[in-house]
Amino acid sequence: MGKFGLASYIARCTQLAMCLEVSASPKPGNIDRQDDYEDTRYEHFLASAVSIYPVIEEASGREYGIGRAIKDAVTESTGWQKGGNTHFGAIILLVPLAMAAGKILAGKDTFAISELTTCAHEIVKGTCVEDAVDFYSCFETAGVRVNPAEEYDLRDSSAAGELLEKNVSLYDLMEIARGYDMIANEWTSGFPRCAECAEMIIKGMNGRITPGPGADINDVIVYTFLHILSGNEDTFITTKFDARTANYVSGHAGSIIEKMKNLRELHKIYNNGHEFDAVRPLIKEMDRELLERKINPGSTADIVIAGLFISLLGGLRY
Question: Is pLDDT at 296 greater than 90 in this prediction?
Answer without folding.
Answer: yes
